[in-house]
Amino acid sequence: VAHTADLVVFGGTGDLSMRKLLPALFHSDRDGRLAPETRIIALSRGGLTDADFRGKVDAEVRDQVPADDLALWQRFLGRLHHLTVDVGGQDRTGWQALSRLLAGHESRDRVFYLASPPMTFGPFCRELELAGLVTPDSRVVLEKPLGRDLPSAQLINDEVGAIFDEQQIFRIDHYLGKETVQNLLVLRFANAFLEPVWNSLWIDHVQITVAETVGTPGRRGYYDHAGALRDMVQNHLLQLLTLTAMESPARNDREAIRDEKVKVLQSLRPIVGTEVGRFTVRGQYAQAGDLPGYLAEPGSTPPTEDSGRVETFTAIRAEIRNWRWAGVPFYLRTGKRMPHRRSEIVVQFKDVPHSIFPGGAPNRLVLRLQPEEGIELHIMAKEPGAGEIMLKPVPMSLSFGKTFTTRVPDAYERLLTDVLAGNPTLFMRRDEVEAAWRWIDPILDAWQASPDLPEPYPAGTAGPASAHELLGRSGRAWHEEE
Ligand code: BG6
Which residues does UniProt mark as catalytic (predicted)? Predict the structure, then answer.
């Protein structure tokens, strides 16, 4: 049974809250995963009353609610509150109002969800402490990005860590809430047939791609200072890499799993200095047909010199230095304005040791996260016919949508349920985040020091030419190019 909770969302009227958190909370409510008295208290600078906020949520989120559920939707709206707060400012009235609202409910689980920029995390936690709102059962949820490099991430971790214990801190990476990502753990650690071949003896290389068709309209303020490496690789792609490469944990518990993941990050071979040019690619989309280039995307601020230097695409050849993976490249790739929205992990096996048939291609396991979650194993089959044996790769495929009739929850639903249950397994531990930055920082430094700009690629295409050469020079190719 879910505990009664007060969920306080800072940045509660923002984009993430409207697009992801509130719909996810509604679905949790509908499925009976919120206790009847649980409240959702949005904080912003917006000066809204509870009624204003409910009206705004009703107007912006209701189209995601099935028609049959409108009565439940009304009940859900009744859980919502709004308070106006001033972080780091002189005006204490918002904090006093929050204290009054929470007073008398100290025994409830308190969750402070910071859906706000990272520089607000430390100040916000200090305000909470100052107002005496942190109880032993409080948790704090930090949205990405957690800093912009290792020192800034450490600073945030220190500031938040001065007020909350590590087990109270939930650092979100919403990729860990995706069904296929959790399924990867099940596939690897609940099936016997993969483990014997899951190593450098049998695997040629791994490709991890998160391709998006969207550009960055309206996000220049954020994106100019982020770029694909910070926005996607430091967190989502490296998380996918750890789950693909980790050793079997001894138990399905928070520390055992995260211990194994962190070891993978610590085993990444650093890419430094001149190697950065060899093992990484950065690109920026340029105008093509109706699609604007990055610099012409509408945004609240005009493009600056930073805009010209930011990468909207990156590809990296990573290596894990341990017994299982030595010599197996892990190619990472992500970009905006690519031709298809497609996220997948492709495990490419080696060729058969000795071939007795003409033709043939190595086996390949594709774990698809998006658009349709599923698993495909490409195996060689004989093409029917009475003549000479002809090989043909055919997929053995599992589509989650077709196999299971239950609704696939959004990543945020799963993660919010875990936060409310106090289970941090699918959240990033401090050492994980920092190990990821430790590997990313030298790449950022080298890019920063380089006089070169990112290579342009036409919007709607699969990245710049160098991304193809990154694999092509060792005779390999990205999955969709064959
Ligand atoms: C976010 C990034 O973390 O992930 C966005 O900030 C990106 O730039 C998004 O578009 C992708 O998430 P998903 O779940 O749509 O693949």
Answer: 236
